[in-house]
Amino acid sequence: MSIEMRRSFGTLRMPAGFGGLLPALILVTLFFVVPVLALLLRSVTGPEPGFQNYATLLGDGTYARVFFNTFLVASVVTIVTVLVAFPVAWMLAIMPSALASIVFGVIILSMWTNLLTRTYAWMVLLQRTGVINRTLMDIGLISTPLPLINNLTGVTIGMVYIMLPFMILPLVGTLRAIDPMTLRAAALCGASPFDAFCRILLPLSLPGIAAGGLMVFVMSLGYFVTPDLLGGTSNMMLAEMIAQMIQSLLNWGLGSAAAFILLVVTMALYALQLRLVGAGRATGGV
Q1: What distance in Å separates the CA atoms of residue 69 and residue 239, rounded to the nearest whole number?
Q2: DSSP labels for 48-96?
Q3: What's the CA gap between 224 and 105, in Å, rounded?
Q4: Whose CA is closest to 41, among 243, 239, 222, 260?
Q5: For residue 163, what pLDDT band results from cuts at 50, 70 and 90?
Q6: What CA–CA distance (Å, rounded) separates 215 from 74?
């Protein structure tokens, strides 16, 4: 490289201070702050100025039931996803890299498959005359079909299947960072496999569980397609209610208030997760 070119590259400097952040701030303002403010404004002005939309949502038993269903489904899906994803992530963390790459490919491929197609596939599998019920009846485990659809069971099965990759991926990264010699040292010191899991492996994997669990929980709060197709009217979630308010009832004020409440809850959970995980890492560092 010539001296002139070196000098020209040397004169290039990254923008410092506020000027360097200005493009990012503009994008965040246009695509996040402005829509959120518009949502908040619509929630307190439609159909009349005031907080009657929030009072209706928080005071009406019907809407309270929808909020309860939303958090119940999100909590159940998150817990089941963690229980299913942990052994899969541990298997991926300890298996040979070539085989792990193949399994990773299968997991990623499931994420690329159309969401609506996967949900309709579960509808076929879970219905009273579906493959699951017919198989269980043929082998004699049940005498009548199980109610696996249009209820919490169907929603949980469908959403856990969809959320699994989002839980497995952060968990694998955390588990691979754990030194296997730590578990061997625990075994040499007389710790049983259960003690080693509860007192070493599980605490060290908490950052991955927290990151994946928060992602799954937040995504489950706002999910629409799977609960709408696999759940019943008695298990309506908040996203379905918002869509019904805006598309069918044209009640933009109430729908905006419900969406804003969901956004506030999501941001609060994210802040809580950052605080708890950060405190845990600080304590571990000491």
Answers
A1: 11
A2: SSSSHHHHHHHH-HHHHHHHHHHHHHHHHHHHHHHHHHHHHHHHHHHS-
A3: 27
A4: 260
A5: very high
A6: 11
d(CA 95, CA 87): 12
Surface-to-core class of residue 56, CB atoms within 10 Å of its CB (0-12 exposed, 13-18 middle, 19+ buried): middle
- pTM for the model stands at 0.81
Interaxial angle between packed helices 115-126 and 152-176, expressed in degrees from 0 to 180 and rounded to the nearest 10: 130
Cis peptide before 96 (omega within 30 of 0): no
Length of the chain (residues): 286
77-110 in b/e burial notation, b at 16+ Cβ within 10 A? Answer: bbebbbebbbebbbebbeeeeeebeeebeeeeee
Q: What is the pLDDT of residues 28-51, one digit of tens each?
A: 888 888 888 888 888 888 778 888
Confidence class of residue 183 from pLDDT cuts 50, 70 and 90?
confident
